[in-house]
Write a structure and sequence with these properties.
The complex is a heterodimer of chains A (about 400) and B (about 230). Chain A has about 400 residues and is of the alpha+beta class. Chain A folds into 2 domains: about 180 residues, no CATH class; about 200 residues, no CATH class. Chain A is about 55% helix and about 15% strand. Chain A has 14 helices and 12 strands. In chain A, a hairpin with a 2-residue loop joins β3 and β4. In chain A, α10 packs antiparallel against α11, α10 packs across α12 and α11 runs antiparallel to α12. Chain B is of the alpha/beta class and about 230 residues long. Chain B has one domain: 3-Layer(aba) Sandwich (Rossmann fold), CATH 3.40.50. Chain B contains 9 helices and 9 strands. A 5-stranded parallel sheet of chain B has the order 6-7-8-3-9, sandwiched between helices. A 4-stranded antiparallel sheet of chain B has the order 2-1-4-5, covered by helices on one side. The termini of chain B are far apart. The chains are: A alpha+beta (about 400), B alpha/beta (about 230). The interface between A and B is medium-sized, with 25 and 33 residues.
Amino acid sequence: MSIVAIVFRSLRQHLLSTLVTAVSVALAGGLLLTVWVVKTQSQAAFTGVNAGFDAVLGARGSQLQLVLNSIFHLEASPGNVEWQDFLEIQNNPDVELAVPLAVGDNFHGWRIVGTTPDLFNASEYAPGKKFELYPGGKWFDPVRRAAVVGSFAAEKLKLKVGDKFHPFHGLIYDEHKQHAETYVVVGLLKPSNTPADRVIWIPLEGIQRMSGHDPANATEVSSVLVKLKADSALAGFQLDTFYNKQGRRLTFAWPIGRVMAELFSKIDWFDRVLTLVAWLVALVATSSILASIYNSMNERRRELAILRALGARRTTVFAVIVLEAATISALGVILSFGVYFGLMSGVAEIIRTETGVVLVPLAFNPVMLWAPAVFIALGALAGIVPAVKAYRTDVARNLTPHS
Amino acid sequence: MSDSSPVLLQITGLQKSFRGPDGVRQRIVDVPAFTLAAGSQRALAGESGSGKTTFLNLIAGILPADAGSIHFNGVNVAAFGESRRDAFRAQNLGYIFQTFNLLQGYTCLENVLLGMTFGRGADRVRAVNLLKRVGLGDRLQHRPHQLSTGQQQRVAVARALANQPRLVLADEPTGNLDRKNSLAALALIRETCREQGTALLLVSHDRTILDQFAEVQDFHQLNQVFAEAAV
């Protein structure tokens, strides 16, 4: 019978406290894994999503607001861009593609965005990936009241090809602000796992000329997505200087990833607080291993004395207790992956619903290797205090039962 | 056992004292000389509190001696450090307690296997055979609480013999049994020790048990603590 067998029999003997303690470790481990993975994945996702474009041109204002509005379809538009400005940047020799966007309407809270077919036909939302339609659908005709619906929005709104709907004015759903125009769903986008999945896409002029919109704005767009030519290394700097430093009317948000990275650096303190809380929870959980085993030491003194009487050395009983603590922690770590998967799936669903950014719970993250190792080490460390008590057990005194 | 049998245990000037609650050290054991032949069986008679258990614990190496020597098979184990005493106990001694001291979370078989773990190593076949020998072949997977007290003591006997020890120490081994079971348990201990060629040193205050032995020694006479007190 090995030390490991002795440890497992001891854990079996104290099954309830073993399980309760392991579950507390599992909850702490699951929380830590979730916080860490959400932090790293969301940062990578938000700074990596650019819809296949390098920059956004919009009204004078916050670059972050411009990116959130045009790439993530969050926030309100900071203002409009003249059609002439769109044509100007479209014709810039360093610009490969410029796609105008117009916002201002919704359907039951899901954002309606006007654009040109170039967004689907001429651009790639990720390297080598173009938007695709489910069979039976087609891209909208820019002169018709037709809509192509993002996969997530279609799923939530239960829209299918041939369905008709009336847009509502504004970015927030108000049942009293329904437009008279009727739009027909002509296509459903296959999932792109980008914020575009949450959008109802209609022709640019649809937004511009929607009933109730200011006719004066009919020649304006909300923003322009800009893709620079690959061989124009300095184009971004030049346009940044031209629009942001020399000009005063427009804002050129470039590069998109840098703008989002600045956002994350601003909320870095929040990440740190979350991580600190997760570590504190981990510390409390591993302390519960200490408390659980330490509290059982009184009733186990006789058991340890018997082991010693049978020839077990002090170091052996010390090792048994430390190994027991580490095993409880390891059991908790195994369970923590279940907790993590449950928590992470919930968080990923919320983030996808709110932002369209897709987090993948099953994607590997280095924390999945080092956190379990740290937890098991902390568990073993927590076992040292009761192990010292076991080490000091007075064999002769504890061989007889105490009343 | 004949007088010509080699000496297994030779004790000289063995002393042990403990500090009492008042801080004063009190001598509990003071045995000038004691010998036990290999394979022999001897009973030590004495009342509770006479130091018999301490004497056995000193022989077993559970307690360190303050003075004196304990030569076991010619080697002075009293000079060993704690770790070597543990190893010596695991490989050479079996211990039967009044309260059996079985581990409640272990099956009968596991209790016996545990008796081998720190000595010669677990031997499942031998453990099963020992349990069959003590009449518990059909109780291998039972836990102690599922057995009668007599059966529990039989598991303790099997465990004590698990490592093929040279000496079995038995501390009031029948103290928790009724008269009928006491005599049966004693007979089993003596028979199995004899079969294994193992010496037996048993302490008891029960006259019926002591009467079963040819060699009975009064611990009061052996332990000089009482002689000094009488003076």
